[in-house]
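new request in #modeling-help
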Amino acid sequence: MLRFHTAGESHGQGLLGFLSGLPAGVPVDSAYVNRELQRRQGGYGRGGRMRIEADAAQFLSGVRHGQTVGSPIAILIENRDWENWKETLAVEENPAARAQSKPLSQPRPGHADLAGCLKFNLHDARYVLERASARETAARVALGALAKLFLRQLGMEVASHVVAVGSVKLAGESVPFGRILALRDQEIVLNCVDPETEARMKAEVDRALKGRDTVGGTFEVVAHGVPPGLGSCGQWDEKLDGQLAQAVMSIQAVKAVEIGTGIENAAAFGSKVHDEIGYSREASRFTRPSNRAGGLEGGITNGEDVVVRGYLKPISTLRQPLGSVDLETKEPVKAAYERSDVCVVPAAGVIGEAMVALVLARAFLEKFGGDSLQETRRNYDAYMQQVRNL
Ligand code: EPS
């Protein structure tokens, strides 16, 4: 069973990621993992923090001589900003340092500040925001990169692109996978496949910046080469669309998730929604002229591309703060502001890729097992022969 979790605070010593259950023999290339971390840091509209950090993964266990060895993998990504927070976030109690740092007691509407203080019985939202911050997703991206390297060995690729920034939307039907994948070779601006739309998206970010505001949007993650049969219709929690929805919804600022064209399907008649079934004798496989189901039917992959969209609210740290209430005095105040991103949609897409890759890798290993890549591949090849023979 593939399992992962992360630890670490935004301005603490660093971020940690743990991954168990990846078979032995998966080639691991640190440069690839670090490139994924850089992709997460990029994009037009990122804030000052990204100029401080240069995220890089240190492998503490589980990878030797460029390959996984089957033992749990631990990764550390150091926070450069820790240098500036050593006192404020000291591990040992230090009354002098504490007296100097003012508690953050003006919770930001939309952030975890208030809900977290109520939950953990804290008077300083600093302790909540440190973990709630999207900085934590650097660890998820590093682990997701390992899941991608595993999936790649079995013929699968996961990529993302941005389909909307604020009110600016990419027009037209689904984008061929090759065009989305090609974005990887370019520096991320807004990660849109159409340069003209990307220019308008950039102008939307500029409008938000000028208005001292923030802007959300939509990213789409596509997984290509996924075999039919991952996930199950057996139980509610085995349905892969449900697992993907939870994984993508867990990304900071995501407030809605869509599989395929799920949202517009709800407003159309059935005859205009479902993807007709064909068969290619040449390829010995079932085919679909369209993929509105986003590669999932009954919670099971059907062999088409898996397509998942995440809808982001605008970042909740506002330069022009909204009204709030001081946690101590209960008097009306303006919400706290230190610094913030204006737009994080392309970065969220990179995080979405990581989450989708981790969920697919888990489902894949659940079905095919294997303690070594060779064993997993053997099991997978035999299954694919069975699929072709159906
Ligand atoms: C982030 C690091 C954070 C924020 C952002 C994401 O750094 P800092 O708080 O030091 O500016 O830039 O976090 C948020 C958007 C948020 O609301 O907490 C990162 O590494 O992605």
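bot summary: Residues 345-368 form the longest helix (24 residues).
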